[in-house]
Amino acid sequence: MSDRLNSYLKENSDRFLEELISFLKIPSISTDSNSKADVDRCAHWLKDHLFNIGITNVQLEETPGHPIIYAEYLIDASKPTILLYGHYDVQPPEPLDLWDSPPFEPTIRDGKIFARGATDDKGQLFTHIKALEAHLAVEGTLPVNVKILIEGEEEVGSPNLEPWIKDNKEKLSCDAVIISDSSMYAPGIPSIMYGLRGLAYFEIEVEGPSHDLHSGLYGGAVPNPINVLSSIISSFHDADGRIAIDGFYDTVRDLVESEREEWKNLPFRDSEFLAETGASELAGEPGFTTLERVWARPTLDCNGIIGGFTGEGAKTVLPSLAKAKFSCRLVPDQDPLEIEKLVIAHIEKVCPSSVKFKVGQHHGGKPVITDKTGIAVDAAKRALKKSWDAEPVFIRGGGSIPVVATFAEVLKTPTVLVGLGLNDDRLHSPNEKFDLENFYKGIQTSAYFWNEV
Amino acid sequence: MSDRLNSYLKENSDRFLEELISFLKIPSISTDSNSKADVDRCAHWLKDHLFNIGITNVQLEETPGHPIIYAEYLIDASKPTILLYGHYDVQPPEPLDLWDSPPFEPTIRDGKIFARGATDDKGQLFTHIKALEAHLAVEGTLPVNVKILIEGEEEVGSPNLEPWIKDNKEKLSCDAVIISDSSMYAPGIPSIMYGLRGLAYFEIEVEGPSHDLHSGLYGGAVPNPINVLSSIISSFHDADGRIAIDGFYDTVRDLVESEREEWKNLPFRDSEFLAETGASELAGEPGFTTLERVWARPTLDCNGIIGGFTGEGAKTVLPSLAKAKFSCRLVPDQDPLEIEKLVIAHIEKVCPSSVKFKVGQHHGGKPVITDKTGIAVDAAKRALKKSWDAEPVFIRGGGSIPVVATFAEVLKTPTVLVGLGLNDDRLHSPNEKFDLENFYKGIQTSAYFWNEV
After folding, report:
1. pLDDT digit string (tens) for B174-204?
2. CA torsion A70→A93→A401→A415, rounded to 10°?
3. Residues in chain A with pLDDT values less than 50
4. Which CATH number fits domain B198-252+298-365: 3.40.50.2300, 3.30.70.360, 3.10.105.10, 3.30.479.30?
5. Which residues of B touch A233 (CB under 8 A)?
6. Is residue A19 flagged as an active site residue?
């Protein structure tokens, strides 16, 4: 990389951080219908920002949900074309009382920036935008053709992205996609992620009596929806911790022995992982290591539950309703639609006829495994090695980026996942953060990447 | 009863209702620490009211919780002394959106008054106060010695009442206690209740990770507190609906055959009971009828549950905490303290070591069976028969009035439970009501009662 590029990055580093702070201040919570105006404001901020750094061909595309930002900077049809994907929406910040500083007032402590979206995905996305800015400012152009696709609905399952990609297949055609929306394996170990879990997300509501009853006058003779819902949830696992839904594991691709060996060679300690979680003990499916459980085995976790009286003190109510949200992380070759059917069939089987139940689904996503070679993967490897001065490792991830499967299916394009976050970034949790070292090294990595491709 | 007494009741009926409305307007929610001022205001309102009808010896007794009202009107040591017990506190009104009219704006529709506390217990208690007023206004005195004990903590398990009764044993000495804080067997069937269930009330909190985690990055390897709590709750019952806690039924007194026969002769239809609940089907312990399940068998019902993300939309969180409230209705000769030990031992047995849990107890109450004869029971029978023109039946109840056991143990005094509510009064639920017919016939019954004793 040219000295001028490096100097530019250095000279402008304070401004980059100020701009990131402005970006993080906007509470673009896509799950919350009350935040619609803020999500919109964030989309406009981003569009203007891209325009101002010199990517003048930028559009804000309306959808039935939140807007998509699409931009392109095409220099030469004979050169490779890379699509950069990211998202500007964030998770809800609740529970608010557990944040040490307010989620939408970005605060710097110990070389880390704390805010909702710091790592997921505003901070990581912004590294690429700043690298593109540097190329444009210093060279007056980019080294490759670049297309940029940034959505505002990743945290709600991207319901409008796939249709939009299908409708704009030709416009989006490219040689590879790059995404930074995940983590490095560990601090100082640059990583390329080649596998992601999928997702199937459910809500269930159980109704016993049609209204809340006095537990003394009716208790013992009327079905209790919380007790019933608890039994349904309990029936999802067997006593050993395996998922007890008929057919659930039928399409799970077994880990290959070489993969298990590679993962065993990664520096990993259960004790450190346990310390990150703060739990008393780890727990999961028998016969698998922690990395295997998280990267290559499916799950069923409750995400939320509510029913009856939850205020202070004692209320002797036999409630009418109980509701839960739960979701399955899926692995190749499980299909979210097929899993939805199995889960619903299971509930129909175990739910007693004395209650009514409703099951709804949120948008899910397919699990994916991508190639470990190709122009973008190879360029990312070289760029990571240069900026971090260490050999990148290939890893899988436990999270879901459903659009990766869409890019493979619709655009027939491979994706390279260059995670810049760290595992202790607390994305989706209170005190989400992004290390400033990762922010600045990420910008440098991206600047190299555009050259290396 | 004298014509003058009857005329007084008739002439003042509109005012009685207006006063009841004033009483019901005060949101004396004892479970809610934010309502302390209103609970206090209600106690003062009641004290002033008793003074104004002529019971001038009335005290407001402070306790560590809400005040107790104690009053007496003693005419002649050779005559019987009856203690009237009631409570001026009410249940929380939530969920507010299910009320057809606001819970603390009493509204009359179809000959019923709708408000929180209408039947439990302000409306029922007020019938006795108005009957005493009538005697004092018409005769200038009462036919027997009357003591009045009204507490403000019944809905939180009366934590300060038992110590107060023990400290004031001599002052409270009496021949019988009368309480109207329950229901008639059915409209038009006056009833005396001779059995009540007891209560043991628990809160449980399960902690998995120490903070909310991303369900993708950690899911599969970390204990999920909602899934674990659901399994604990599920383990409380076996597949048939019996409680599966070791020793839980050991001290349950079997129903005697004559009692079962008597209950079979009461007019009762499962279909009507089911219609009251609005559930799809009834459900409960095998081998018992609905009345037996509700009156004479113990239960374990969840009263509330909460954990993780319960807002709108999907959040893929692996939560740190899940909490539930649950309670057991107990029958003779189960002891609440003994049941608490069994429940905690059960949880310790089934809860996996990968999570931490805490169990707390709210104040419970002992189950009770009282005599079917005695001066107060006999007088109540005659009073009920006169005012309702029908033979009273002896019934048991599924609810709990723990003070009945305290009166028996501390004062060695029998209690007569003259329920004036109806089973569809929705106490503890939205749209609680009290039929005005029951209000006015209740006043008449009470007026007869004081004469008959």
Report:
1. 999 999 999 999 999 999 999 999 999 999 9
2. 50
3. none
4. 3.30.70.360
5. 226-227, 230-231, 234
6. no
